[in-house]
Design brief:
Length: 88
Amino acid sequence: MRMIQCRVLKRSAPGLDRPPYPGELGQRIYQEISRDAWLQWLDQLSVLMNDHHLNTADPAALNDIEGMMQAYLFEGQTPVLKAAAAKK
């Protein structure tokens, strides 16, 4: 089992088996994010998609999702949809 120093959990934890996302971002996630942290992100994503009715066929929604994913995984931010934040 591959162990990594997880940026989200801030400790050593089992890594992912393969990059979960395409390109350089997927490689970065593979190298820096643990399996448990990735599963936490997927839980967050599910809530966001249901609460905000995000459609993954919409390029704008995919762009928002990718931004929230990076903020959550690498900046320690709670994922917030830009449009939802603007309404508050």
